[in-house]
Amino acid sequence: MTTPISSFLVVSALLFSIGTIGVLVRRNALVIFMSVELQLNAVNLALVAFSRLHGNLNGQVLAFFSMVVAAAEVVVGLAIIVTVYRRRQSASVDDFTVLRG
Amino acid sequence: MAVDQILFWVFAPISVGSAIAMILQRNAVHAALFLVVNFFTIAVFYLVLGASFLFAVQIIVYAGAIMVLFLFVIMLLGVDQDESLLERLRGQRVIAVTLGVGIALELIVAIRAGVGFATKGAENFDTVANKGGNAVALSRVLFRQYFFPFEVTSVLLIVASIAVVVLASKKRRAITRADATAAAAAEREAA
Amino acid sequence: MLDAIWLIPLLPLAGAAVNLFLGRRLGRAAGWLAAGLVAAAFVVAVGALFDLLSLPADQRAHVVNAFDWISVGSFSVNVAFLADPLSMTMTLVVTGVGALIHVYAIGYMDRDPRFGTFFSYMNLFVFFMLMLVLADNYLLLYLGWEGVGLCSYLLIGFWYERPSASSAAKKAFVTTRIGDAAMLLGIVLIWVNLGSLDFGAVFGRAAGELTQGAATAVSLLLLAGAVGKSAQLPLHVWLPDAMEGPTPVSALIHAATMVTAGVYLVVRSHVLFELSGTALTVVLVIGLVSALYAALASIGQFDLKRALAYSTMSQIGFMFFAAGMRLYTGAMLLLVCHAFYKALLFLTAGNVLHGLHDEQDMRRMGGLRAEMPLSTAWFAIGSLSLAGIPPLAGFFAKDQIVSFAATSDRGLAWVLASFGAFLSALYIARPLFLTFFGRRRNEEHAHEAPALMQAPLAVLAFLAVFAGLVLGLTAEGGRLAGFLEPALGRAEFGEGALSDGVLMMVSIVLAVGAVAIAFWVWASGRVDWEAFPQRQPELAGWLSNAFYLNQLYAWLVQHPGKGFGRALTVVDDRVIDGAVNEVAEDVGDASHLAPRIQRGYVRSYALGFLLGAALLLLFLGLRA
After folding, report:
1. What does DSSP assign to residue A32?
2. Residues 7-46, chain A, touching C (beta carbon < 8 A)
3. For residue B38, which of A27, A42, A66 has the smallest C-alpha distance?
4. With left for phi above 0 and alpha for psi between -120 and 50, is residue B4 left, alpha or beta?
5. Rounded to whole angstroms, how far apart are CA atoms C62 and B123?
6. Is A96 on the interface with B (CB under 8 A)?
7. pTM of the predicted model as reported, rounded to 2 decimal places
């Protein structure tokens, strides 16, 4: 492979930042969740890139587990969003101000 | 130019572009679809990097299962209405964008410092690390070194399923006191 | 008996304690107990006197050490009593006259609800006064000094429900305090310069170790205390107001004993005063000026007791005058005689008040000799004695001092002193004639005082008549001077322009003449003295207001005082309260800002997290 590893890492960094912006700017709970998934994927990409860099498969294994956990997390998270939506009839994060100080 | 370079330089802009597009979409379904595109590009990156197994898993699990689930929930709840553009928190957008740009820059600088822009991957990756093919090599590592975490993740999946069933079922035992009083009141009215 | 002189102050102290706690249950017996204890102290003093006389003349200074009081580093003071001619003289006067006044007070304070407390205070006063005169060191003297100030306050303000009485008590205390503070400085200076406060050590070392400047400083500071306590100019303003207290108090404290403490102090410290070039001159001047000022003020007073108060101030001025001329024995003779006739005068005034139901204004008296013959006799004896009519006691005391001024080459002083003597006869005959002679200006029937109150007066009258003959017959002072000589030294009697006989004639003529003028103006009915205030309102105003010194002081003290108070109020309100309120406001404001962080928006919380994470990353990155 002739592409420098850093290229992939830069892409990963960019995707991560975009995901961060998405979390902070969007109001729809589901879109926020999707941005989080984007962040996770960016990290997975970085892991695989590092695996290639170091010449062993540890990074890939970690990325694999990350995917599994992400799947479980998505499932539970969506269930929570569904429950909350049922009670409040709104998926906009700005409407959930119960933690107000 | 080598194949991997062409692939990279084609799919990298698509990846970043779809990500940006995703966060700019007012409609949730559109955003989800752009995310699917992004996942596909990442799958290609996996392939380029020699992780063919993950390439397949990414497509099957992420794009095929997780995003489908997302779309189901979006359509189920009917929250695909366009989000309003008005931002109620003062300065949130500005700070968020600044923060994002800042993080990106930080990371790039760190990458330059840590890895360097010229380093290529390990030379003999395909022969040594991926000996026997990526799936075989991965399983070799997974079922030997990382066997315990493997089992634990399976437990995790079971727990997650049970959790979902409990959370999402309509008739639930009251979790909070408010639930209990509301349920009791509803029962008295029904009676 | 000499070794038991510590009993002398202790007896009245016991009386004070008993009467303080059991006074209410004892009733009238409280008074007898108090008087009895003072009389017992007198007896012990007499015994000590005889013991003292049995010693050879140059050894008549016996110190009895009761116990070690303070011992800190190089500073050590004991509770020690000194029995020498000077202290014994004072002790006998205090206990003797004190006992008589106590007996009188049993009758005078008869129906007062706080009878027991009164005698407790009186005994306490006698205790402190005795500590003062028997002390062997300056600190113990100061203890007594302060103590008599306290008792004076308690007794002047005895009828404290009267605002005038409690004000007068405060005024007395505060005014004398000014002098006391200076005196304390003087005592400190003594210790700094001489390393001890014991009289023996101080007077022994003073000649060698005290510079003239230091001696002047010490003397003037002690004099300040004396001026306050003895009500001389400029710290005299409390004495006339002190007449608010019951009459026995005026007699005991403000005539016979406490006000003479200043004279005692000066006489006792004469060694220090003589070492300074100017201190004695200051004493002399203060004494003379006070004497003349008070004499004129007394003539202008219509309140019987206030007239007597100014007369006390004037007589004490004469004592200071004598001391200033180094005639210490003369000052002491006058002190002793004054104690007798002034107490007599005050107690007789008490009779008059008692008889006229607390009428004190002489314009509403007159012609009382028909109804109060005994009191008239007492007052006449007292007046004539003070006026200096021979052979009564006051004549010997006064004449000695005035003549000494002539013989010791102080011409101007003699003229002024003679004028003062003339005025003193005038101002004391005036109340005699206004009260007991002339036209009756009061409708009420005046009844004579009971026997209990007359008996002490008889004793005092006897003393006022004969004390001079016994104690001070010769020009050189007589028996008392001889007795006091070991302690006070001999005065230098010089030869003046006029012989002794001529001087004596001048004194007698002035005295008799003054009495005659007084009779003509105030008793004969031929001078319309009642119209004087209308005809000469300004002059009358100056006299009756004692030359407006009270008003001057009030203005001098009040204005800055009030201004200062107002400034402090502003500081308190704006600065101190302001600062506190400011802090409270700031806390309030901060507490309004704080909740703005937690508005409930998840996204802002998320922003917070990620900002923190970014900063952490930056930090880690920079470190690596």
Report:
1. H
2. 20, 23-25, 27
3. A42
4. alpha
5. 120
6. no
7. 0.67
